[in-house]
Write a structure and sequence with these properties.
heterodimer, A: 362 residues, mainly alpha, 2% strand, B: 632 residues, alpha+beta, Penicillin-binding protein 2a (Domain 2), Beta-lactamase, 2 domains, five-stranded mixed beta sheet, five-stranded antiparallel beta sheet, elongated
């Protein structure tokens, strides 16, 4: 029952939803940076989105199995480049996260996210059975853990954390049992003090200020407080385009990047918040729908892995603005200004579209 | 690689459905969170956002200048910076931050903490002044730490300056930060950190001198940098005040008194204008224009000679023999004696079984036969003891009071002492005892409980020699005050007519004091000078200056002199504390009168008097609209 590849099957809804969110992001980036030292960020973001769209369409043309089959090599290449980055990477802002390439910088860990998605998908693609064994858990854990540790060493704990939802989603879909989850949760709880030991002072400070926000309004929780003031002051209708005093006067930190959603909520109010969150939900639900109807397990796990990491980043970013989570350097997919992140999301979308397009094939 | 199809694995599909519900639930939770902030707590966060970006900066109104009668500057302003603390985010004041700010500005962290607590109740939008007259280092600290301490700001202010330093300091007074009590008064226009007059003319005419501060609402960014101005309420500058003081005369009086503790007052008997007012030791009001440092304050308050006391109006001292003029006036006016009434002075007299010595006792034989004139010239105690006995205390007190003693003169300076004219009623009220007859005898020569201030003596003697017309001494021209909207003073002139004969007898006596052989004021005699007056050497010390007196316990020297003797144009009173003998006070008065006459002799139209008047008037007309250059 082979069917011809049809272009209109290629998950255009996904791309359109993503572009709508990206457009909102660009408008907000423009609003918050125009007439400041950061003017021009919106234009750059447009270029990145255009590049991303092109890449997404390009990848959707390719058969995702191609990537899944080469997973082992992609993975090896990723780990190697992370190690190389740690050793010889340029130190920018105190961390070795970026490869510099002709005046441009590229954040390697964003691409590694994709590789991990592909890796996890490849691991489960030919795994029979309704349940996962402890060995599966250990293997997937190692598969994700190794690059996570390398990224955490850069140091970029936020990005390292985003890898784990991919593993979690994979294991959940693979059939992890409640008992196994319980044991893992217990282990995790026991590891917490050890993890604390490895945290850097600024990371500990962020956690402390999350638990006790009143202790220091100028330091870490200053950012959270100012973000909340921005959001709360937006009210129902928002202050309007270009009128966000909190973001424009610099009270909200990096209001075009990690904190773009606070700036957006300030200017567009609860109405804007609601609309954008609905767009995100639509995107995620659409991805999961795609996973359900994927042509095979590889496609399904690809979609799920991508959805998981997107979901994690959105929830943590949007949630940290209102104090649901500690402040971490996790950008908001599609809205935060940043080239590497945009490229990652659109490459991921390309993969998802590739899966969608081939749901009846094979 | 073999690929499995999801159709074989329905459980995965079910699990994906679970994930979809999970996603929806979590997004719902996020939405509820945003709802709470954006709808539920919107008002509170909106206020926080406004507080973040809007800063209310006071625009300090320059204080009016104080000028002498010729328009020469006695008090001026110069631009300076104050360090402000905006308190719009109160949780920012953690101990380490307070310590950091205190260190940077060189102030005591404890003081700063106390200041923050003290002002915690005030509206948040009102910044408080942390430091006046900021140094270059302070300014650099604030500018360099805009990010760490965005709550610090600089405010350009007009700092008070007194170009003549200690000159006439007691009369001019000083300014300082408004006290908490003043702020607490109902309807008080003051805010913490406001500069107000604390003493002297600065205090009396504070409402005229001080303008009304304006306010600027500015938009600031997160670094506290100003991004724009929203509204500006202009400051209304204060009005200049021209005083009756004459710097030339003041300088002469300061020099004449020199380093000795005491006071000099010169008034124009025809108007009551105070031409000079000296109180030594003096202080430099510039020390108070910024926050007075502890060391200076300690020095000023611990000095037994009380530099912060205006002795011209606050010294409460026995007048000594100057009082004999009042006793004489009472005796003549009551008809108790005629000027030719004669007493023989052996240097001592026994009255009511008590022996009273004349001041010449033990030095030489008594004064011999004395009439009123020679008794004044020689300051014969026995003569006035006798008058005292003849008059009784009631009559003496009546005339002394009517002639200006025992009550405030009403000079336009704060803290004037009323002096004291004792009476049986006073003894009853204050000491619950009856009047001792002997006290009358002491009072008759200006000893005992009778107490005066230097200004009071000048005022009263001026009143006597002008026939009982007492003109309220003042430092601010009345017309000017009326023009500035001040209420007219009700009792500028008090009449207590005394007969021409009395005035004539007393005046001639006072002329003789200076110009006749044996006169106690001979030191003021100089060819070409026409000075009359009365000396006094007072033994009694007031409780207030007791501390200063112990140890040395010398007599206070007084001299009240005037010129010309016929129709006085100036009355000068000099007090030299612990001067020992009145003769040390006489040259002080002489020098002041000399300076006055010299200046009058060479009088030309003062160079800028007219200009000043024009300026004062034009300021009156323009002041409400006069914009003022604002800070930064």
């Amino acid at each position: 029952m082979k069917r011809r590849l049809r272009f209109r099957d290629a998950g255009w809804v996904l791309l359109i939803l993503a572009l709508m969110i990206a457009a909102v992001g660009i408008v907000e980036i423009y609003s918050t940076t125009a007439h400041t030292a950061l003017a021009g960020q919106a234009r750059r973001q447009i270029y990145w989105i255009l590049l991303g769209t092109f890449l997404a369409v390009l990848v959707s043309r390719l058969d995702y199995h191609l990537f899944v089959e080469q997973a082992i090599w992609l993975y090896a290449l990723s780990v190697t480049s992370l190690v190389v980055l740690l050793v010889v990477g340029p130190r920018i802002g105190g961390a070795r996260r970026w490869f510099a390439l002709g005046g441009m910088t590229f954040q390697v860990s964003e691409i590694v996210k994709l590789v991990i998605i592909v890796g996890v998908a490849a691991y489960f693609a030919d795994r029979p059975g309704k349940f996962v064994a402890w060995t599966d858990i250990a293997k997937v854990g190692a598969l994700v853990g190794l690059p996570a540790v390398l990224v955490a060493l850069q140091p970029d704990l936020g990005t390292a954390l985003t890898f784990f939802p991919i593993a979690a989603a994979g294991l959940f879909l693979g059939g992890i049992r409640a008992r196994q989850v319980a044991v893992l949760a217990l282990l995790g709880a026991l590891m917490l003090p050890v993890g604390w030991h490895f945290l850097r002072p600024y990371q500990r400070e962020r956690l402390t200020s999350y638990v006790h926000p009143k202790q220091d309004t100028q330091g870490s929780s200053y950012q959270g407080t100012q973000a909340r003031i921005a959001i709360g002051s937006g009210g129902f209708w928002g202050k309007g385009f270009g009128n966000g005093t909190q973001s424009r006067l610099g009270f909200v930190p990096v209001s075009h990047a990690d904190f773009v959603f606070a700036a957006f909520a300030e200017e567009q109010g609860f109405v804007g918040t609601l609309l954008v969150l609905l767009l995100y939900v639509a995107l995620l639900v659409r991805l999961l729908d795609g996973a359900q109807s994927a042509g095979d397990r590889a496609g399904m796990f690809l979609m799920i892995g991508f959805a998981a990491i997107l979901f994690f980043q959105i929830v943590v970013n949007v949630g940290m603005m209102i104090g649901f989570f500690p402040i971490t350097g996790i950008p908001l997919p599609l809205m935060s200004q940043g080239g590497s992140a945009a490229v990652f999301v659109f490459l991921g979308l390309g993969l998802a579209m590739s899966v969608e397009m081939r749901r009846f094939v094979n | 690689m073999e690929f499995r199809f999801p159709e074989d694995d329905r459980s995965a599909v079910r699990r994906i459905a679970v994930l979809q519900y999970l996603i929806s639930a979590i997004f719902l939770a996020l939405l509820i969170g945003y709802w709470r902030l954006q709808i539920g707590q919107h008002r509170q966060y909106l206020e926080a956002a406004e507080r973040n970006r809007i800063r209310n900066l006071p625009v300090i109104a320059p204080r009016g200048r104080i000028l002498d009668r010729e328009g020469r500057i006695l008090a001026d302003n110069f631009p300076a910076f104050s360090v402000l603390l905006t308190r719009e985010s109160p949780d920012a004041f953690t101990p380490p931050r307070i310590a950091g700010i205190a260190r940077g500005l060189g102030i005591d962290p404890g003081d700063l903490q106390a200041e923050i607590q003290r002002t915690a109740k005030l509206p948040r939008f009102q910044p408080i002044v942390l430091k006046q007259s900021a140094t270059i280092e302070d300014i650099a600290f604030v500018e360099a730490h805009r990010v760490e301490y965005p709550e610090l700001d600089l405010l350009q202010v007009q700092q008070r300056s007194y170009p003549k330093n200690t000159l006439a300091a007691a009369a001019l007074g000083y300014v300082g930060e408004v006290s908490e009590e003043m702020i607490a008064q109902s309807g008080s226009p003051y805010r913490p950190g406001d500069v107000v007059g604390k003493f002297g003319v600065e205090r009396t005419y504070d409402s005229i001198l001080s303008g009304r501060d304006g306010m600027r609402r500015v938009v600031v960014n997160s670094r506290g940098q100003e991004m724009g101005s929203m509204t500006t309420i202009n400051a209304l500058p204060g009005n200049d005040i021209r005083l009756t003081l004459d710097i030339d005369l003041q300088l002469a009086a300061e020099a004449a008194l020199g380093g000795r503790p005491g006071a000099v007052v010169a008034i124009d008997p025809a108007t009551g204008e105070v031409l000079a007012m000296v109180s030594h030791p003096s202080f430099d009001p510039n020390d108070f224009a910024r926050r007075v440092d502890r060391e200076t304050w300690q020095k000023l308050t611990s000095d037994p000679d009380k530099p912060l006391m205006n002795k011209a109006i606050q010294a409460h001292l026995a007048p000594g023999s100057v009082f004999k003029i009042f006793t004489g006036a009472a005796a003549l006016e009551t008809g108790t004696i005629k000027p030719n009434f004669t007493v023989s002075c052996p240097g001592v007299i026994t009255i009511y079984g008590h022996t009273y010595h004349d001041w010449v006792w033990g030095k030489r034989a008594g004064h011999g036969s004395m009439d009123l004139h020679s008794a004044i010239v020689n300051s014969c105690d026995v003569y006035f003891y006798t008058l005292g006995k003849m008059l009784g205390i009631e009559k003496i007190a009546f005339f002394a009071k009517r002639l200006g003693l025992g009550a405030r003169t009403g000079v336009d300076l704060p803290g004037e002492d009323a002096g004291l004219v004792p009476s049986p009623e006073w003894a009853r009220k204050v000491f619950k005892r009856r009047w001792w007859a002997g006290e009358t005898i002491s009072v008759a020569i200006g000893q005992g409980a009778v107490a005066v201030t230097p200004l009071q003596l000048a005022y009263s003697i001026a009143g006597i020699v002008s026939g009982g017309t007492l003109r309220r001494p003042h430092l601010a021209f009345q017309g000017q005050l009326l023009a500035l909207g001040g209420a007219p003073e009700e009792k500028n002139v008090r009449e207590f007519p005394i007969s021409e004969e009395t005035v004539d007898a007393l005046s001639k006596g006072m002329w003789g004091v200076v110009n006749e052989g044996g006169g106690t004021g001979a030191a003021a005699r100089e060819p070409g000078l026409d000075i009359a007056g009365k000396t006094g050497t007072a033994q009694v010390v007031s409780a207030e200056l007791q501390a200063a007196q112990t140890g040395t316990y010398k007599n206070n020297a007084w001299f009240v002199g005037y010129s010309p003797s016929a129709k006085p144009e100036i009355v000068v009173c000099a007090l030299v504390l612990r001067g020992d003998h009145s003769t040390v006070a006489v040259p002080v008065v002489r020098d002041v009168i000399k300076a006055f006459l010299e200046k009058k002799g060479s009088r030309r139209p003062p160079p800028n008097q007219l200009q000043t008047q024009v300026r004062v008037l034009s300021q009156l007309q323009n002041s409400p609209a006069t914009p003022v250059a604002s800070g930064r």
